[in-house]
Design brief:
Elements lengths: L4 E5 L10 H7 L4 E7 L6 H6 L9 E6 L5 H20 L4 E5 L8 H12 L5 E4 L4 H9 L10 E5 L7 H4 L5 E5 L5 H10 L6 E5 L7 E3 L14 E6 L6
Parallel strand pairs: 1-4, 1-5, 2-3, 2-4, 6-7
Antiparallel strand pairs: 7-10, 8-9, 8-10
Helix pairs in contact: 3-4
Length: 238
């Protein structure tokens, strides 16, 4: 019999935001996988859950290169898929840890597709997690949407070009992965005249947390990887 694949969202960083369901499952799986950069074997997701893992459960890192090169990504997905499939075919229940929620900008989405293409009959259970933008809105006391307002979540991994595309149709925008092209994103916000309607949050719930609503203070900032922007086109400014 095949093992079960669990996709577990561990939340944005604060271990206290891990769900009870995630803790229960982590206490009974036979192997845990965590994503890491191909340049190191560190996983924040693993750090978040470490106190809830039985000492004897094996933990393996899956290397994912930080690149947009499709060939390198495909090679990594295929290799990681085979690593997990080996354990599933041995009847081992496995958990893959992911920051935030497994179905929101997560590496688990791509891994799941690969595994299902190899093992269509594999049992899968996905445990939702608190997203970074939910936690960021809470710590900054900034509503994500209210009444009849709309909310759009976009990626800033390639810059802020999507911002003017979605703003005509949305009252509030969360721009995730805002670290890499931060100056360009800030310039796009200036072009749109929204400097006074932005909240920046970085390392939410972790040491070094930053919540900044003064746009001028963001000039020259080199944000951490775990950074996002909440932009409110209408309603009360942040």
């Amino acid at each position: 019999m095949l093992g079960t694949l669990y996709g577990i969202g561990v939340g944005p960083g604060d271990p206290d935001l891990l769900t009870l369901k995630a803790v229960k499952i982590l206490g009974r799986v036979g192997h845990v996988f965590a994503a890491s950069s191909s340049s190191n074997d560190y996983s924040l997701a693993l750090d978040i859950v470490r106190d809830h893992l039985p000492r004897e459960v094996p933990v393996s890192f899956l290397d994912f290169p930080m690149t947009f090169n499709k060939d390198r990504l495909e090679e990594a997905w295929r290799a990681n898929c085979e690593t997990v499939v080996q354990r599933l075919e041995a009847g081992v229940h496995v958990a893959f840890l992911t920051l935030g929620d497994p179905m929101t900008f997560s590496t688990f989405i791509y891994l799941l597709r690969k595994i299902r293409s190899r093992l269509p009959q594999v049992p899968v259970e996905i445990v939702p997690g608190i997203t970074s933008y939910q936690a960021a809105a809470a710590c900054a006391a900034v509503p994500l949407s209210e009444a009849e307002e709309t909310l759009t979540v976009i990626s800033g991994a390639k810059g802020g070009e999507r911002l003017p595309e979605v703003l005509p149709f949305s009252d509030n925008v969360v721009l995730m992965k805002a670290y890499k092209h931060f100056p360009q994103i800030l310039q796009k916000i200036r072009d749109l005249g929204l400097q006074d309607r932005v909240c920046f949050v970085s390392r939410c719930g972790l040491d070094g947390q930053v919540v900044e609503k003064d746009f001028a203070a963001l000039e020259g900032l080199k944000p951490h990887y775990l950074s996002l922007l909440i932009v409110k086109k209408t309603g009360t400014p942040p």
